[in-house]
Fold this protein.
Amino acid sequence: MATIKHYIQAARLRTLPLSVSGILVGTGIAASESKFNLLVFILAIVTTIGFQVLSNFANDYGDGIKGTDDERVGELRLIASGLITPKQMKTAMIVTTIITLLCSLVLIYVAFGSENFIKSVVFFILGIVSIVAAIKYTVGKSAYGYSGLGDVFVFLFFGLLSVLGSYYLYTHELANILMVLPAVAFGMLSTAVLNLNNMRDQIQDKKANKNTLVVKLGSQKAKVYHFSLIIIALVLLIIYRTTQITISYKDWMFIVAFIPLFLNLKVVAQNIIFRELDQELKKVALSTFFCAILFALGSFL
């Protein structure tokens, strides 16, 4: 019988810090312009976590019923292990969807009020799209995670939408085009986490016909791709900082977070046994989260 503990396991708590990294970055930049709203910040974090938990539930459900998780390495998969039934997981997905939608509606109202109807509608549509994307990653015959498009989803939603969207909630404008640089950078770092996950699972994914980008590229090209994501992200963040009017040591604190990321690159370069990459996932995810915190602090301190 499924318990609360099992649903918490299915929520994959270690993925949650990564999911809010873009929110922290967008918030930090907005705060540097004296445009910060604590309630918007709290609601944005809660809503984003809701989307991530829904995605994790859907991933467990989609991969579980397709048999992809039967030999999975890493965190326990609840449907594959029989601890949660497919019906119970579908119910959990429905409940999470409703709660997340309600949170997003409150967030939109607090951010825009009743005067900005068009902006409210646009953000509500983005919320619906986010929910559909979270579910369709592994659920259904046309699940895009099975055709190598998962990287695109993570890049767009964890990078561009998360950073630029959260900034817009505070400012109601996107006046600075250079904000695209940190948005792309954190999209790449988040994608690196997914790529590492797929490198770990490439043997099982190939057997299950889950054609992730790693399966399509092969191990060696996937390593080059991984290197590119992290190095280009660092370069973009450096470029963004150098374009600021005033620069101090606080602006460069985020570079500290790249130390474990570069250590990860060494491990990836030398890796032969794919399942050993599992321990690297937390390192890259938490380093990205740490980088977001330092980048945000450097923006407004």
Observations:
- The mean pLDDT is 91.
